[in-house]
Design goal:
The chain is 32% helix and 31% strand. It is α+β, with helices and mostly antiparallel strands. The longest helix is centred in the C-terminal third of the chain and has 25 residues. The structure holds flavin-adenine dinucleotide.
């Protein structure tokens, strides 16, 4: 007999939301969360206002507020035209967006949401089918069996890969990420600026720390030598507003390139197997919804797992898979629309690749 009913691999926003939901909707299920040490390499992210309804659904809204993350009432963008536009969130019914240090946010949500599950601090290395479902080998030398497995390992797609399957890459976007400490007053809010080879964003991490991130395609990053301080600063110099903030930063450090492209699992569900969060579909960060989307899919994956195991509803996983497919289709249409609204460099490879197929009927990116 399997030791666990559900084993969740990964304790980021998706895995934590799945564990929390299972604890409330199926408290009799025995759940394990395998949590690899957090190797997060980018710290500054913004949670959209939609974080509030999802965190309320998880019963974690008050606990989130108590963490003291900074609210963000507007986003500044230089996109589609030369000037700076401000999107105010003061009248947004769901409240402000939130600027978070992702390492701190992940530590908080993992401990707040996974308390009812058995936590295994290790990495899943192998995954095999057995008579009762699945068994996994972990990096700490332990082996565990479960009736159903949720892959919430983010872009690593660890359990999908162990089955010999790969994610479908929608583009080859990478992020050239760096941090620095500003010597004087510098804008706190999220600022997004398009340039001829992609786009940049900057935001405050608090206590004078800022992140500066250049988003472009992997081949363009190579030709710009974005992994070197010289190449990174040369690309920064092409911006007007981001470079004005960077001027106030004494020293740029922790420069690194990380994958950031859109991708989706070719099969987000299988026999007693579900993908949640980025493991199911990773969005281009311009969407600004990655964390909220990951938590929401963790909630829905948990409902599907519970329907399958508790109510013997064999169609539950397929219904979840169909929901993931609809979400990907809506996202892709919105993404084309958003990139299509920037036409100043339509002949440059980065923009040409994204604007080839703009449909005027696509909904706007939310
Ligand atoms: C440059 C960049 C900027 C972004 N900015 C934003 C933003 O501003 N706002 C926003 O909402 N989203 C943003 N995103 C997207 C957001 O980071 C992701 O969508 C979100 O983290 C997905 O959550 P997840 O739980 O699916 O995966 P993850 O957060 O990646 O969590 C996966 C977890 O699984 C663990 N793991 C991996 N392999 C294994 C294994 N074999 N065994 C066990 N555990 C494993 C990892 O250590 C990790 O803890 C950004 C992404 C990038 C790349």
């Amino acid at each position: 007999m399997a030791a666990f009913d559900v084993l969740i691999a990964g304790a980021g926003p998706a895995g934590a939301a799945a564990a929390r939901t299972l604890a409330t909707c199926a408290p009799n299920l025995h759940v394990a969360v395998v949590a690899a040490a957090n190797g997060r390499r980018c710290r500054g992210e913004v949670l959209s206002p939609l974080a509030q309804p999802v965190l309320r659904q998880l019963g974690l809204w008050s606990a989130f507020l108590a963490q003291g993350f900074a609210p963000s009432h507007r986003t500044l963008t230089a996109w589609g035209e030369a000037g700076l536009q401000s999107s105010e969130l003061l009248l947004e019914a769901r409240g402000p967006a939130w600027r978070v240090d992702r390492a701190r946010f992940d530590d908080w949500i993992t401990s707040a949401a996974c308390s009812a599950a058995t936590r295994i601090d290790a990495k899943v290395f192998t995954l095999e089918r057995d008579a009762d479902g699945w068994s996994v080998d972990c990096g700490d030398g332990t082996r565990h069996s479960a009736r159903l497995v949720i892959d919430a390992t983010g872009r690593a797609n660890a359990l999908v890969r162990r089955q010999g399957r790969r994610a479908r890459a929608q583009d080859r976007l990478v992020a050239a990420y760096a941090e620095g400490t500003a010597s004087g007053q510098a804008a706190q809010e999220l600022l997004v600026e398009a340039f001829d080879d992609g786009w940049w964003y900057t935001m405050s991490l608090g206590e004078g720390r800022h992140v500066f991130v250049c988003m472009t395609d992997a081949d363009i990053a190579r030709s710009l030598r974005l992994n070197t301080p010289h190449g990174w600063h040369a690309a920064l110099a092409k911006t007007q507003f981001i470079s004005a903030i960077a001027c106030k930063v004494d020293r740029i450090e922790r420069l690194r390139l990380v994958p950031a492209g859109g991708r989706s699992a070719t099969m987000p569900v299988g026999f007693r197997f579900l993908c949640a969060g980025d493991a199911a579909n990773a969005f281009d960060p311009i969407s600004g919804h990655g964390v909220v989307k990951a938590m929401r899919s963790g909630v829905f994956a948990a409902y599907a797992a519970s329907d399958c195991l508790v109510r013997n509803d064999d169609a539950a996983l397929d219904r979840y898979g169909a929901w993931v497919a609809r979400e990907v289709a809506a996202y892709e249409a919105a993404l084309r629309e958003h990139y299509g609204s920037e036409s100043r460099w339509a002949d440059r490879p980065f923009w040409r690749r994204r604007c080839a197929d703009v449909s005027s009927s696509s909904p706007p990116l939310q």
